[in-house]
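Curious: can you check?
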Amino acid sequence: MPLHQGQQKPDTDRHSVNPFYGEANPVSGMVEAPPKHRLPDGPLPPTTALQLVHDELMLDGNSRLNLATFVTTWMEPQAGILMAECRDKNMIDKDEYPRTAELERRCVSMLADLWNAPDPSAAVGCSTTGSSEACMLAGMALKRRWSKRNADRYPGARPNLVMGVNVQVCWEKFCNFWEVEARQVPMEGDRFHLDPEAAAGLCDENTIGVVGILGSTFDGSYEPIADLCAALDRLQERTGLDIPVHVDGASGAMVAPFIDEDLVWDFRLPRVSSINTSGHKYGLVYPGVGWALWRTAEELPEELVFRVNYLGGDMPTFALNFSRPGAQVVAQYYTFLRLGREGFRAVQQTTRDVARALAERVDCLGDFRLITRGDELPVFAFTTAPEVTTYDVFDVSRRMRENGWLLPAYTFPENRQDLSVLRVVCRNGFSSDLADLFIEDLSRLLPELRRQPHPLTHDKEAATSFHH
């Protein structure tokens, strides 16, 4: 055992103390109420700050009972451990965190293989903060490729993008931000998404691309991507116009490959130029990750890729955001590794089974008419039956909220504004037991709703906080 002598010179050194260490003034934390809308004058004890924030968050809704959101609300504890280990890693610092960057690269390769890229090693892609950013990047690539093909006319000619009126709002944002005309195919009758021939009819020499939705947020239905590509093939034969397709697979791109294997919608269709998905939806990861992939490097114009000399390394990057945590990308790789194809197939099939069974039980109540049945996305929409006049879908949404259920009610867009529906999104973690509780609560409310003299929700805009 070594022997040590005591300090031989005056003790002038001190520990460097972080102000976050310990409680600054325990008494002040008990008697002084901090302001809500400006910085407090001094620090609070960490336990006090924790309790204040925790207590306020208790008034939020229960995310597991939120039937409006597509976003993942449950992951395994092991994923949480990995995310906690990586939440301080900046995803953009690929030179500093090369293993995190490698996991991102592997995820892109796995998705390219899953979506049947002709040569998965030649496909290019990146992670994003979600599908909205991924859609923006895909739209930028479409516009830049169009402008290069039409350099003699652009910027004089105004580009346009063709899509169904049912697209997620991020596409309207893209058109607004990047000065592209949005040409939308309206709904007609019981068709609640894009019609392939109508979409082809809106295309001209200024069309940068057509967006197909694999899983509409309005009702959970798949748009017919193969039929859309066929219609554009016929358009090219007649006119020479070669219009690329982007598939917005925010949800369906992580469902169809596993339980709709015979559905051809992806890179097997030569006209499909790019695909996006949300890792934080049916990719089964907590919010904060999306993916954008292009068939080949040629589909993504090189001038859109920035090569940054950052922290001593050459780093190609294509993103609207710069700094963001690596935790969600690591969680995505964990989920891919953990489940594999068979695991994903089991999860998504179970989720669809719950959705279809619950839709049938809603149908059997007699008060409602199903719009969709949960047999594409694990999502279904329903409205009140024609003979129901004492209440409407907004009354149902309001009353179900009293039991903790966040059940969105909303009106369809132009041409079908006469149709208002309720929508149920079934996610991993929404079990058949929870479905039982949902149908019990809904059934319990019906006698009271039937006794109403008329629908009671006057302000339909305020009836639900749900917006597409």
